[in-house]
Write a structure and sequence with these properties.
The complex is a heterotrimer of chains A (331), B (413) and C (277).
Chain A: H1 2-6, H2 8-37, H3 59-65, H4 70-105, H5 112-120, H6 127-137, H7 143-150, H8 165-169, H9 175-179, E1 181-182, E2 185-186, H10 187-190, H11 196-221, H12 226-234, H13 239-266, H14 271-276, H15 288-297, H16 302-330
Antiparallel strand pairs in A: 1-2
Helix pairs in contact in A: 3-16, 4-11, 4-13, 5-11, 11-13, 13-16, 15-16
Chain B: H1 2-22, E1 42-47, H2 52-69, E2 72-77, H3 81-90, E3 97-101, H4 102-110, H5 129-134, E4 136-137, E5 140-141, E6 144-156, H6 157-162, H7 174-186, E7 190-193, H8 198-207, H9 225-239, E8 243-244, H10 254-259, E9 263-269, H11 271-279, E10 285-288, E11 299-308, H12 315-325, H13 328-338, H14 345-354, H15 359-367, E12 368-369, H16 378-389, H17 396-411
Parallel strand pairs in B: 1-2, 1-3, 7-8, 7-9, 11-12
Antiparallel strand pairs in B: 3-11, 4-5, 6-9, 6-10, 6-11
Helix pairs in contact in B: 2-13, 8-9, 13-14, 16-17
Chain C: H1 2-33, H2 37-42, H3 55-63, H4 66-97, H5 103-114, H6 122-131, H7 138-142, H8 149-161, H9 165-172, H10 177-188, H11 190-206, H12 209-214, H13 223-231, H14 241-261, H15 263-275
Classes of the chains: A mainly alpha (331), B alpha/beta (413), C mainly alpha (277).
Keywords (chain C): Cell membrane, Membrane, Transmembrane, Transmembrane helix, Transport
Membrane topology (chain C): Multi-pass membrane protein
Domain ABC transmembrane type-1 (chain C): 70-262
Amino acid sequence: MAGIRGNERPAGWLFVAPAVLILGLFMLLPILMALWVSLTRWNGQGSPFTGSVPFAGLDNYTKLFTDEGLARQDFMTSIRNNAYYVLLVVPIQTVLALALALVVNNRLLKGKGFFRTAFYFPSVTSSVAISVVFLFMFANGGAINAILAVFGIDGPQWFSDPRGLVHLFFDTPPSFLTEHSLFGLSWWDWLAGPSVAMCAIIALVIWTTSGTFMVMFLAALQNVPVQLEEAGLIDGASAWQRLRHIILPQLRPTTFLVVTLGLIGTWQVFDQIYVMSQGNPAKTTLTPAFLSYRTAFRDFDYGTGAAISFVLFLIIVVLTLVQRRLTRERN
Amino acid sequence: MTRLRHAALAAALAGSLVAAGCGSGFDDNGSTTTQQSAGPADLKIMIASSGDAETKAVQDAAAQWATSSGSKATVTPAQDIVQQLGQALAGSTPPDVFYVDAARFADYASVGALEPYAQGLDGVDSFLPNLRQSFTYQDKLYCLPKDTSTLALQINTDLWTKAGLTDADIPTSWEQLRTTAAKIKAKNITPLAIGDTRDRVGAFLVQAGGYWVSPDGKQATGDTAQNVEALTYVQGLLKDGLAKYPKALDTGWAGEAFGKGKVAMTIEGNWIKGALNADFPDIKYTVKELPAGPKGKGTLSFTQCWGIAAKSQFKQQAVAFVQAMTSAEQQLSFSKAFGVMPSRQDAQATYQQQNPSDAPFVAGAQYAQGPVNAPKMDSVLADLDAGLQGLQGGDPKALLQRFDKNAKTALGG
Amino acid sequence: MIRTLTSRFLGYAILIFFALVFLYPFVIQIANGLKTEANAAANPLSPFPDPLTWVSLERIFSGTGFPTWLGNSVLVTVVVTIGRVAFGSMAGYALSRLQFRGRKALFAGLLALMAVPPVVLLIPKFLVLNQLGMYNSYSGLIVPLLADATGIFVMKQFFDSVPVSVEEAARIDGAGVFRTFWSVVLPMAKPALITLTILSFTGSWNEFPHTLVSVQDPGLFTLPRGLADLVSGSLGAGTQYPLKLGAALLATIPVAIIFVIFQRYFVRDTTAGADKG
């Protein structure tokens, strides 16, 4: 045996070498480089790794949190927008995915395969291509407004209406909300709710991801012991009671996973914003990911752009760690 | 956990070694760029095209230059020139020649991305002085103005007649613009499409006697009575449905809404001529000067220059190319193709002769206000545009105050 | 009996409603790609083009960079898929089976990398490609995508679940590590390899953010990048929805075909992903 194991050492490293090299060069190294750039005022000319690039210390970070100015205002606006986005997307997609899984899993219904395919298909298509389709559907004279018109509703101008949903209902802000501010945005601005344009993007994302999560729920449902359900039937429990007391407890780990995966994913929204709105109208679809891209590549402020990336990174890492910790506890 | 830390440390060390070993991608100083001063060049030209008409005209002109000079010249229209150029400059692979908008010029010049080739170049004096001023940074003229254009009012004559209007209704004042627009709206036609940016709405500020910044461009002058009056007026038009932003009309820009016959009037620049010709050849329209405001006539002028990258390998050939593109004859042929006005004084007379219908644009050039051109202003101006997108439900005074506050930081005073 | 009937009816109603919601956008995409611009603007909902026209599809090939994007996309997808399958299965095997110093640390590092969100790598990747002189080239477009942490993880999990006895037998027969891997292990890993291939194919075909920061020459654009530029289009290009929808449709078709053929493996991906963490 020793002889056999003996040649495994070099072989082992040889086997992992290509992957290690690529991941190291294009994931680990870039993160270190960007960390450095986030501490400088590099303007995109020449190399950022020479002595001539002015060192900024933590300025790029304090700009986002403590210094009054446009950088903080934009950053906080993007955090607000993304928070509303998360707040709507995660619960809706989770509930929708669960509901669809329950219906598809119903033993009385045929055609399970077809419906599963239909619901799952959107999530494998290109985010850019699908954004194009939704852009067309949410045009002012587009399909969505045509459907709304059937019900006598005069649809909004989806991608040019910058008003938040909350602002739509309360026209004039109470003065105590406009007088106080937090991180450069007034309370009234924080409470704006997602804009009409953001709602269109929210609809798109729920539509694309629900299928994936439905498949996860389906897999978990198939593991619910049949005896358990039958026991419930014999006890004369209603459908709702069976769901509430027998099925849902069994699905807890999956639900938990779906929620945390959703939380992590929704903080990364980028493709859809880039294609559909570029942060417009009036910055109401600006998200941290898009803001960091724009700050670096359009405003030549690579330091601040990288700093925004790292703050976003931190948010996501914290969410991931929480998920892992909790998953471990449950297992 | 310790294992993880070791792994991270090892990887970090390995990473830094690799970085140190291969740090050759960036070109650390422009002066070492090998220059191929004479002979055939392979020029890359990036343009921000106003449409197919312009793309084709520039490509044809470049091809002609290439044949006569024995060089290669590839013209690429950029979808988003600011972003593409930004990446290209940072990546040390900039195109040799590219359009530089007056509003972005200072940004490029201040970071040393542009070659100041125009300073002291022969024949520079024949370009219009105010345009040359737009491309001067720290007393150096960096690049030659490509052309110029101004905003004017376009009127769809078919819809005009349909709304029962005559030449007497053509608005020459703000009051008249409102009353005429109301008459058009009464006939269920959208009266006016106006772009939702400072580059369109700003014209009203000039007509009211104000502007975003002081004449020397060094101070923000947003929150003034004149500007508030102008924005309140535009807001009134939007609120009453007398004017609409292009997106509200399902179009990419106001010219498209106009070309599709969705609106009776629009406010665009010379470029609309070429675009309408190419995309909507059947539309019938006339061009008039913008209606005057409380402080008289006012419009905005725009200009771009032919920038040459400081890192270009073919600077000499690039200058020759730009000179060919800015000759009086070539400028007049561009004018014909996509409607812009020449940037040379010696071509003006011929231009006016050839294009009598462009008289309102030419007249506008006399009282036009140029763009804001100070470095570091782009994000401030983008924020202003964001405010203007929400003008209908916003507060003009707050919008202007916000601009002042942001601009003050950027302008450093 | 009546209760079962109503619940069955209700169930089908819900399913059909949502099937419409999930599939009708694709119908709209196909139909409007074949409409004239005026017709698409007037009847965006109608599934029947009236008149039916191929003009937009023809313009996609003659008037845009579509053929170039398509070529680049095919090249990138093929090379990246081969790379990911090869490197992923090798690394996954080594991490699962081979004894070598640093293996556990490597696996911990891999788990950490899986948690790195791709969007925060936009600026970093640009910096490193620049530093290595790979910006705006095919190598910059392809090489960074050649290995992915999730793929390696999926392969490692697979090898962990397979009994080691067959390989041991081969080894005792005197076969070296490479022979064993090539002629015993890989054939056995076919289902996992198919999953990895599909994962890599769809992942690289749909990849967008990486192309945004690795190239800027239109000659190097892939389909998603070209499509994104077409949509955010330049002034005066107009809305041209039939053209854009047609291009989006053509970009969706290959994935759709793969999806229909290898459906069951797609479902496997999701559950494989569910185990991680």
